[in-house]
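Lecture notes, unit on protein representations.

Consider one protein chain, 726 amino acids long.
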Amino acid sequence: MADRVAIRRALKENFGFEKFKGNQEEIIAELIDGNDVFVLMPTGGGKSLCYQLPALMSEGTAIVISPLIALMKNQVDAMRNYGEDDGVAHFLNSSLNKGQSDLVKADVLSGKTKLLYVAPESLTKEDNIRFLKKATISFYAVDEAHCISEWGHDFRPEYRRIRPIINQIGPRPVIALTATATPKVQHDIQRNLDMLDAKVFKLSFNRTNLYYEVRKKTKGVDKEIIHFIKNNPGKSGIIYCLSRRGVEELAETLRVNDIKVLPYHAGMDGNTRSENQDAFLHEKVDVIVATIAFGMGIDKPDVRYVIHYDIPKSLEGYYQETGRAGRDGGEGHCIAYFCHKDMQKLEKLMQGKSPVEQEIGRQLLAEIESYAESSVCRRKILLHYFGEEYHEDNCGLCDNCLHPKHQIEATDELLAVLEAVTGVGERFRSDYIINVVTGRKTDDIRSRGHENLEAFGSLPKTEERFLNALIRQAVIAGYLNRDLENYGVIQITPEGEEFLKHPKTFKIVEDAEFSENDAEPQIKDGTAYVADPELFAILKDLRKRRAKDLGLPPYVIFQDPSLEAMATTYPVSLDELKNIPGVGAGKAKRFGQEFVDVIRRHVEANEIQRPEDLRVRTVPSKSNVKIFLIQGIDRKIALDELAESKGLEYSELLDELESIVETGTKINIGYFLDDILDEDQQEEIMDFFRQSEEDDIEEAIQELGEDYTEEEIRLVRVKFLSEMGN
């Protein structure tokens, strides 16, 4: 049995902490005892320590399988700064040249290296397998283990090869760790890694310091974001966009509005990506605008907000990305912008995938759409998705709880839905159930004879939007179950069967009708109280200067909670500094002297007894895509050819053309319109826009849609705006 006293002593000696968080001690003891361990722990819960500490305590080298080179570099740097020997941690991946790779292998074989980070692709290379067979391996750690599952938000096929390679190198205990996994994904991970008998540690997904909000995405979204950033000066934030182009354009908009910002996406060269990431970690910039390529496992504890400019593809992805805020326990704003147009784009991205992948993708999109539209406590929805129940009536830290909607009695409607689910044999999704209760005689319903059910047409006048909200909230309440593994089939639970026999009151809130709201969210500040804010500011400045000299992120030297403790207890010697949380002997020796000197001078000098409305600037230069389109139109190239050559959907091409003319640039698309519409047809549509008091494309489609497609109407509108307005 692992010596718990020795484990606690090692924690203090290596990391400077007096006690563990959550189940860390039990997890480490299991691994040291030679058992497989599965760890499901939210971001910020301290997953890395669960393999770092046992690696330092065990004979040999722990192999940490990690998905991103940036993540490896970040963690290796952090480990090296806890001690005095850089050889304690290495990574082995494609970024190393032969000389660097040989040095890493020599350190491993000599026993100097306790943690070796490898990508799954590197693990499968024959020369690396041969090398690892010679090494003494303490255990294997599979980080970001959700990458194994097709139902996970970041599926990586190479992760499925990990177990066979482990068997080839030589079996040792395995610890698999992830911050996001539904019960389905958890089972996939354990089955694929052949660790179904592993000891499972599942911590609460409830990040109590995070505030969740969903806002309607409108044309004013850029201005809203700039307002938010300006109202949170000096705070670190991440903004996620769906596309590389979106990243570049938003980053440039923020930059011209005097925000310290850099972009990050997979289309950039590796050096630029690495430099931009380091600039964010080292606090040279406040904001990173990124695709989801950024942030997996990035250990920056003081990210104060995560904004989703585009809604993500799954609730798991959303939870993982929002989890990068407030990892130090301080405040964390999580704001997502939602519109149905983004959902349509995400659906189009799935085209070309296998039917099974498309069906999985649609189910994951349905869950994120449900989350965005729901008026129920967002914390309750998130926790339920991950198999955890949240029993508080009001979390006080989401938009729905801070602005609760009126509840509506829905007992009769729930009874009708439960009867319909039972009547169709619990084999259909919510859209089918809604068709049954509202009495729609679709071909599917007729072919199965379900129009003869007693429940058919029982709610003929009830809106589909209301019924969707009812089913979602009945799932959360435990009366229904949505079987994601079976493509979202709705099933009745024992509680639902009991409700049918003995009905009781059931109230719901209707789904949100998104409205623009410029008010900033009210959120609780979870940051620890600082007794001496002046000293705290001095220490932060010293940390930043020291970090710049060493080329390190500031938090690698000391994290904010450690500085706060220093500014509260005033340690004036290295021995006293070692008692500060997060300051071990190695850190005190390596970085501490300057800090205690500054604290001593501050104590002596102060005789301390120890014991405006924002005007948003737009980007003047046009994007490369817009320039390409303008030049192509000047050469009279067909618009569909221009779209195809740039990889644009036709609707995206129309968006670009509308954006070009709406910002005052004149273009002549008459050559293309003449091929698809005759002169009279063009004039009829032009007349509508001439006579319309408002530029309302929806009204135009409603008025003209019987004779013309939406694309034709929008194209003529582009011509109209160009000729009449520019």
